[in-house]
UniProtKB/TrEMBL annotation:
NADP(+) binds at A12, G13, L14, G15, T16, V17, G18, G19. Pfam families: ACT, Homoserine_dh, NAD_binding_3. Belongs to the homoserine dehydrogenase family. This is Homoserine dehydrogenase. One of its GO terms (molecular function) is homoserine dehydrogenase activity. The lineage of its organism: Bacteria, Pseudomonadati, Pseudomonadota, Alphaproteobacteria, Rhodospirillales. Keywords: Amino-acid biosynthesis, Methionine biosynthesis, NADP, Oxidoreductase, Threonine biosynthesis. It comes from the Bacteria. The active site is at K209 (proton donor). It comes from Niveispirillum cyanobacteriorum. Its EC number is 1.1.1.3.
Length: 432
């Protein structure tokens, strides 16, 4: 219902994203009002540090020490949760807002990954909107793109670069040779990283987003616990250089696919062709690639983190609410979401890159080749550069299509060989 009355917003959390939302709502006030037929006004906020200058005049805005009190303010129409965390105050305040009849907009993928289905049920049964465009792939309209734009399709697969911090780190390591810790500190300074950056580099943040994206893509229950998760801590400069030589980029990807066994969900470093959509997406940019049965492949690329892009997504959700538009939270009503059925990663069939550090002595390669033969793993390319008799040298190969289970078995055997000095580094190759 659009009646020209202001849409009254309460914002909890005024950090990177909250600050960005305040700025956007103020800077583009006229535009938003023209587009929705009513002003969007921030009337209340809750934040830890009242004295901090956020570059926006908050003198006429109500302050709350406790976000849960803001959530039930009778003069707030929409509660915007930008605090973060899967439980604690964020969950408590969102639940309080829904119970008090407020629409909720959140950027909190951790909350949605753990409690998305339950919160959607609460919102829908009260006729309220729970919106979260900012939670997945920052400024990219990935949720709306899938849920509204591709609503006519059976989605076969969705994959993408879902963590800006990791893509920024991998890009900077390749293009500048800087080391991991140094680039991560940069990403934190730029407002890309999570409060606990291990969520970024260990793949957990991308897995939160993938679980939410999967639910929207397939109309299935959010099933975070079934996501296979590996992060980027083990990706070395050596691997990044070998990837380049082989025609690939290393990306942390989230991949969700419908298979005969159920829905496969995985987050791990991948090698993808340099010219593929994900291979060509550098820096803090994210990419989301969806494959629908009628539309075929659709690619969305944009900034995945940072104040401006994330605020853009939060406010787009506010525009929907101001216009009175509503869509089932995950594309189908919460009661009709398909029960989670997870396909195991052991059923993956595909190509692999492997790097070993071995003692440079005769017979080592023959031992490795014998292990691969025993597991029916077929080598595609093999690289060994330079000689350093008696010392550690890298040995790299790629495989033809191989079963994950066979690959894991071969790697376990290879890891136990005396001549292999470090745990084997394996990166899955995806020829998207
Ligand atoms: N930074 C990004 O690029 C980005 C992008 C998409 C989504 N997100 C998500 O947005 C949310 C916020 O992220 P951020 O980067 O702005 O984090 P941030 O740490 O910069 O901001 C969070 C703010 O919440 C405040 N806060 C903490 N506890 C509070 C409480 N009890 N009451 C009120 N305020 C409280 C903190 O003081 C802080 O200012 C998180 O869920 C995050 O995952 C962030
Ligand atoms: N830490 C997240 C923020 C965006 O959700 C990232 O780097 O992608
Ligand atoms: Na988004």
């Amino acid at each position: 219902m659009v009646d020209g009355k202001p849409l009254r917003i309460g914002v909890a959390g005024l950090g990177t994203v909250g600050g960005g939302v305040l700025k956007l709502v103020s800077a583009n006030a006229d535009l938003l009002s023209k587009r929705t037929g009513r002003p969007i006004q921030v009337v209340a906020v809750s934040a830890r540090d009242r004295s901090r200058d956020r570059g926006v005049d908050l003198s006429n805005v109500r302050w709350y020490e406790d976000a849960a009190d803001l959530a039930v303010d009778p003069d707030v129409d929409v509660f915007v949760e930008l605090i973060g965390g899967s439980d604690g105050i964020a969950k408590q305040a969102v639940e309080a807002a829904l119970a008090a009849g407020k629409h909720v907009v959140t950027a909190n993928k951790a909350l949605l990954a753990h409690h998305g289905a339950a919160l959607a049920t609460k919102a829908e049964s009260a006729g309220l909107t729970l919106a979260f465009e900012a939670a997945v792939a920052g400024g990219i309209p990935a949720i709306k793109g899938l849920r509204e734009g591709l609503a006519a399709n059976n989605i076969r697969e969705v994959h993408g670069i879902l963590n800006g911090t990791c893509n920024y780190i991998l890009t900077e390591m390749r293009t500048t040779g800087r080391d991991f810790a140094d680039v991560l500190a940069d990403a934190q300074r730029l407002g890309y990283a999570e409060a606990d950056p291990s969520f970024d580099v260990d793949g957990v943040d991308a897995a939160h987003k993938l679980a939410v994206l999967t639910a929207v893509a397939f109309g299935a229950h959010v099933d975070f616990k079934s996501v296979h998760i590996e992060g980027i801590r083990h990706v070395s400069a050596l691997d990044i250089n070998y990837a380049q030589e082989l025609g690939y980029r290393i990306r942390l990807l989230g991949i969700a696919r419908r298979t005969e066994d159920g829905i496969e969900q995985r987050v791990h470093p991948c090698m993808v062709p340099i010219t593929s959509p994900c291979g060509a997406t550098d820096g803090v940019f994210n990419a989301v690639v969806a494959d629908g049965d009628f539309v075929d492949k659709v690619v969305l690329v944009g900034r995945g983190a940072g104040a401006g892009p994330t605020a853009s997504a939060v406010v787009a959700d506010l525009v929907d609410i101001a216009r009175g538009r509503s869509t089932p939270t995950f594309g189908v009503p919460a009661a009709a979401l398909e029960p989670a059925k997870a396909a195991p990663l052991s059923r993956r069939r595909g190509r692999y890159y492997v790097r070993l550090m071995v003692v440079d002595r005769p017979g080592v390669i023959a031992e490795i080749a014998a292990t691969l033969r025993d597991q029916n793993v077929s080598m595609e390319a093999f690289l060994q550069r330079g000689r350093a008799p008696g010392e550690a040298v890298p040995v790299v190969w790629t495989t033809h299509d191989t079963d994950e289970a066979a690959m894991q078995q071969a790697l376990a055997t290879i890891a136990s060989l005396d001549s292999v000095l470090e745990p084997p580094r394996m990166i899955r190759i995806e020829d998207f």
